[in-house]
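Homework help thread (please don't just give me the answer)

Our assignment gives two proteins as sequence + structure token strings and asks us to describe the second one. The first is just a warm-up. Here they are:
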Amino acid sequence: MNETTDCLSEGFRNRRDDDFPMLFFAWGKCRVGSTPLNNLFGVAGLPSYYQPVKGILRHALVGSAGVPWNVPLAADQPHIFSKETAGPYVLAESLFNPLQSLIEAGYPSNRLHAIILDRDPAGSLASWLDKWSDRASQDTLVYNYVAAVLNAVRIESYAQQHGIPVTHYVYEACKEAVFTVRMLFERLGLADRFTEDAVTAWNEMGELESENTRIIFSDVPSIHPTSGIHGSDTAYRYRARPTTSLTDEHRELLQRYGINDVYRASVAACVNDLTLDTATSDRLFGDTNGAAA
């Protein structure tokens, strides 16, 4: 954490508070649909950064030097977006608090808005196991997954302690993407940045592992390849994740460690933050008491 913070501070020093753009800082466990959301904000016209803090952390973990994050001046870009994810390979990735590193490195708390991301527990755990079982043992992935989920309490608490506004956005909300993204942008004070085309007309910009994407990727050590992790699409939309790879033990674990409870709380907060009515909530989330069933 100290090394990550020191590296960030190199890019932030000698700036006045009002030189920093308003940063919409999205955080969640891995595999919550954060990369398509990353692209969505980029298509909407905001500089949209992929794990700028985690990239530095990963360098520190292998003993190499990270690259400071040189955010644009507010006069040039008044709003920017970044996403950070927790997990999956080592416990440090699940427990670290990138928001704390930003604050301690000098990013003004009044120039931050936190967006807490979540996704159906069974779908996200299945995605961890499907994507990374060739890179880490299942036991390691499950352990780090639980830690990443429970870390959400710390991240949100830290934001509240520093007076940082918090908005919750759950992946299943994008089953009706145009409507919920409009509500999200209004909540963030970005109503003038919203267009339906930013949601529905990505075309080649939806190739998330190509130069056509609207994501600004961070520098990471070569031992952390991202190839094959991200898909492509012509729009921002919901994609269901099969959960047949989960065992009864996996599903029991989600209940025993309160993972389903965290998701239910995320759904309730998302419904409140986006001012969704009961009918819309039922369509998007159904019976969340049956999460991971």
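The one we have to describe:
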Amino acid sequence: MLKLKPYKELISYAVAMAVLLLLLRWLEFRFLVLGHQYEIYIGIIALLFLLFGIWLANKITKPKVETIVIEKEIRLPIQNFILNETELHQRNISKRELEVLTLMAKGLSNQEIAEQLFVSLNTIKTHSAKLFEKLEVKRRTQAIEIAKKLQLLPPTLG
């Protein structure tokens, strides 16, 4: 404190000038705000409407449905279909089971297949169950798909 005593008067003038300068800046700001208050309010309202318009435009122009691209294998018809005999023997599929599989691929029901092959409905169900087991599938559509991939059925059938 002893070192500041000679500068006490100078420090008090500096503090007074700083306070007066802050007061002058505050009055200038207040005058600016009071003198142009309508323009400032209009500018704030315009800014709010601008932001609202941008938000609304994004909501309106945003697509409501999301596009999903599904890739599916397209089979081209083969002119000369060759039955894959090795796969047929390897999976131990009989000629009658192959007939049932072919009729399944044509979209016939079990009853229609039974009528066409002149056998009972239970026989067709047995052939279907054995086919599903041999092709390692659970449904007719899966069996047809696997049979086409293994070249047991022509790709254009069904």
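TA reply:
I won't write it for you, but here's a hint about the kind of observation we're looking for: The helical segments are 8-35, 37-61, 85-90, 95-105, 110-117, 121-135, 140-149.
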